[in-house]
C-alpha cells in the first residue's frame, strides 16, 4: 500500500474513532449541547413564562388602579370575569338560536295554513265545476 494512502486512511479512521468515542463518553446529550428541548419541556417553559407575564401585567395594572383608587385585580377575579363573560355569550347564542327556531316554526305554520287554504279553495272550485 502506498504510504500516503495509508497515512490518509489512518487519519480518517483515527478521527472517526475519536468522534464516536467523544459521542459515547461525553456527559449530557447532543440535544442538551445545542439547546434542544422536548415538547414537554418547551410547554413547561412556555407556561412558566406566561405565568410570569401575567404576574407582571397584574402588578402593573394594580399599580395604576391603586393610583386611581380602584380595587386591585387578582388572577381569580380575572378568571371569574372571563368565565362570566363566556357564560353570558353562550346564553346569548342559545337565546338567539331559540328565537330563530321560533321564527322558523312560525313561518312553517303560516305556510301550512296558506297551503291548507289553497287546497280548500281548489276543492271548492273543482266542486263548482263538477256541479
Rounded to the nearest angstrom, the radius of gyration is 39 Å
Mean pLDDT: 86
SSE string: HHHH
Cα shape: elongated
Structural category is: mainly alpha
Termini separation:
124 Å
Number of helices: 4
Range of helix content: over 70%
What percent strand? under 5%
Transmembrane segments: 6-27
Region (Disordered): 97-131
Keywords: Membrane, Transmembrane, Transmembrane helix
Which helices and strands occur, and which strands form pairs?
Layout: H1 3-25, H2 30-34, H3 39-68, H4 75-130
Describe this structure in words.
The chain crosses the membrane at residues 6-27. Keywords: Membrane, Transmembrane, Transmembrane helix. Residues 97-131 are annotated as: Disordered. The structure is a single chain. By secondary structure, the chain is an all-alpha fold. Among the domains are: 40-73; 75-131. The chain has helices at residues 3-25, 30-34, 39-68, 75-130. The protein is elongated. The termini are far apart.
